[in-house]
Amino acid sequence: MDQSKLFNNCRNRWANVEDYFGFASAALMQAAKSIAASEDKSKEEITQKLELLKQYADRIAKLDVMCKSRARVSKELFNKSKDAPLEPGQIKEIYEQGLENTQQTVDQTSTSNHPELINIERILQKVSDGMTDNDIEEDLTTQQAPTLCPILRCALDNPMKNTECGHIYSLKGVIQLLMHDNAPKGRDVPETIAEVPNHFSARCPQFGCNKLLRPSSLKRDFATELTQRQQQGSAQEPESVEIEDF
Ligand SMILES: [Zn+2]
């Protein structure tokens, strides 16, 4: 296998690991919400459990940064080895330099601004403020994810969140919108956000929202995806029972 192919495989593998961290964070958030809303536990018990989840979320946030750096280094190696294979010395240099840069980022940036950590912190605050179960329940359910894509007007598929406003669209819909508003007619519509030129932009199509929508402001929405998978899982359950009965 040629060198650049190998680096590309590496990059894809790290991207897969990144996805696992995304789902792990989403699952942690679900756990935090259900703990906060549990009626049979004392305030101390709830706080203790949430503090533990916060530690896990912090660890995941740190691993996520490290994982992203390895993906970035693999991408750099892939790009630089496209035309001609790199010498072992060059590979070592690029790799070590890339990892060193990340280590600095991990050291400098506090993971405390990671969204999951902020959310768990918020739930902890509510518990310590002595909110009733109903208050917490109400607060948490208002954030329920939508099920329809505002662009394609059908069920959300591969949900992507706009970090500018929090609105969620289907991957296919948001790519279509960005291409429609920016690219000359007849141009091929790519399958991934990474292939959409970075300077392309549109207005958020959600009614009443006027925020900007750009490839760089879109993030895969693991929380909605996890909920969807769980719902699909529970919908499929009766079917498998039937097969067993048969
Ligand atoms: Zn919006």
UniProtKB/TrEMBL annotation:
Its main location: nucleus. The keyword Nucleus applies. CDD domains: SPL-RING_NSE2. Pathway: Protein modification; protein sumoylation. Residues 226-237 have a biased composition (Polar residues). Residues 226-246 are annotated as: Disordered. One of its GO terms (molecular function) is zinc ion binding. This is SP-RING-type domain-containing protein. It comes from Gracilariopsis chorda.
